[in-house]
Amino acid sequence: MKIAIVTGASRGLGRSFAEQLLDRGYFVYAVSRSGEGPKALDSRSVQADLSQAGAASMLAQNIYPAILERGPDALLLINNAGTIMPTCRIERAELLALEKSFLLNLSAPTILTAAFLKTFQDVDMPKMILNISSGAAIKNYEGWGHYCAGKSGLDRLTQVVAAEQASTAYPTSIYSVYPGVLDTKMQEQIRETTKEDLPAVDRFLDMYTHDELEKPETVAAKILSFFIQYPSSGVYDIREL
Ligand SMILES: NC(=O)c1ccc[n+]([C@@H]2O[C@H](COP(=O)([O-])OP(=O)(O)OC[C@H]3O[C@@H](n4cnc5c(N)ncnc54)[C@H](OP(=O)(O)O)[C@@H]3O)[C@@H](O)[C@H]2O)c1
């Protein structure tokens, strides 16, 4: 059985991943706060708020041993859940909101990755971790200091783990991927932001007006088709594939 764990699977890009993985024959653990994953026999919705300290460790302890027991023959973890909130200059941000951003955007993927590698290290099967990053990892956006830092950290994590896995008996492939600008709730939140809080907001408003946002289902399909071929581990921009 092929098994996938997708965080942020209730809507947007994560929901598209979950639905398309079901179509590809995976059993899917669909993680989100609402627990509103796809309704399918081969899917289990898991409720977790990954912006809470301890939640990612608890999630890993709850589902990984059960997955190991099922004897999967392929495994995929997609660290997709993310937030751009709070959007404002860093000194104006609520401190707890900054902390939650790092817990969701960087801490949770790190913990879920570490526990995944440990639990499945002795199992010889195709194993993959896909970290959904952003162009914000390599571009400064005023108003998104924490988001840029979190995504940058995610890319670095990917590169270090890729190097570590190269010397293991049954390595896991690991990727960071920039999905482009997507027509999801995250973009709705961005369009509601003032120019004072996000000086680049006009760029996103223009893209919306000119119908230039990518459909999440199109991008999910492109990402899955490309990475299912297990290219070399590393950081990729989907627009350049
Ligand atoms: N949209 C873009 O233009 C864009 C561009 C570059 C990169 N990305 C990246 O792509 C990924 C997906 O973004 P999206 O646009 O699909 O976002 P979205 O529409 O806002 O969806 C976010 C998903 O994450 C879940 N989530 C949010 N907070 C959570 C929490 N604390 N704990 C657990 N789950 C949580 C949400 O479900 P619940 O509300 O039910 O928890 C939802 O399923 C993110 O990592 C984002 O940074 C997006």
How would you describe the oligomerization state of the chains in this entry?
Answer: single chain
Strand order of the largest sheet: 3-2-1-4-5-6-7
Which percent range fits the helix content?
Answer: 40-55%
The gross shape turns out to be globular
Ligands (ions, cofactors included) = NADP nicotinamide-adenine-dinucleotide phosphate
How far from one another are the termini? 29 Å
- How do the SSEs run, as a string of H and E? EHEEHEHEHEHHHE
Low-pLDDT parts are: none
SSE inventory with pairings:
Layout: E1 2-7, H1 12-23, E2 26-32, E3 43-47, H2 55-69, E4 74-79, H3 95-120, E5 127-132, H4 145-165, E6 173-178, H5 185-191, H6 201-209, H7 216-227, E7 234-237
Parallel strand pairs: 1-2, 1-4, 2-3, 4-5, 5-6, 6-7
Helix pairs in contact: 1-7, 2-3, 3-4
Bound molecules: NADP nicotinamide-adenine-dinucleotide phosphate.
NADP nicotinamide-adenine-dinucleotide phosphate is lined by residues 7-14, 32-34, 36, 48-51, 80-83, 104, 132, 134, 179, 181-182, 184-187, 216.
In short:
The chain has 241 residues and is an alpha/beta fold. The protein is 42% helix and 17% strand. The chain has a seven-stranded parallel beta sheet, sandwiched between helices.
Q: Can you tell me about this structure?
A:
- By secondary structure, this protein is α/β, with parallel strands linked by helices.
- It has seven helices and seven strands.
- The chain has helices spanning 12-23, 55-69, 95-120, 145-165, 185-191, 201-209, 216-227; strands at 2-7, 26-32, 43-47, 74-79, 127-132, 173-178, 234-237.
- The chain has a seven-stranded parallel sheet with strand order 3-2-1-4-5-6-7, sandwiched between helices.
- Strand 5 (127-132), helix 4 (145-165) and strand 6 form a beta-alpha-beta unit.
- It starts with a strand and ends with a strand.
- The mean pLDDT is 98.
- Bound molecules: NADP nicotinamide-adenine-dinucleotide phosphate.
- NADP nicotinamide-adenine-dinucleotide phosphate (NAP) is lined by residues 7-14, 32-34, 36, 48-51, 80-83, 104, 132, 134, 179, 181-182, 184-187, 216.
- Residues 7-14, 32-34, 36, 48-51, 80-83, 104, 132, 134, 179, 181-182, 184-187, 216 line the site of NADP nicotinamide-adenine-dinucleotide phosphate (NAP).
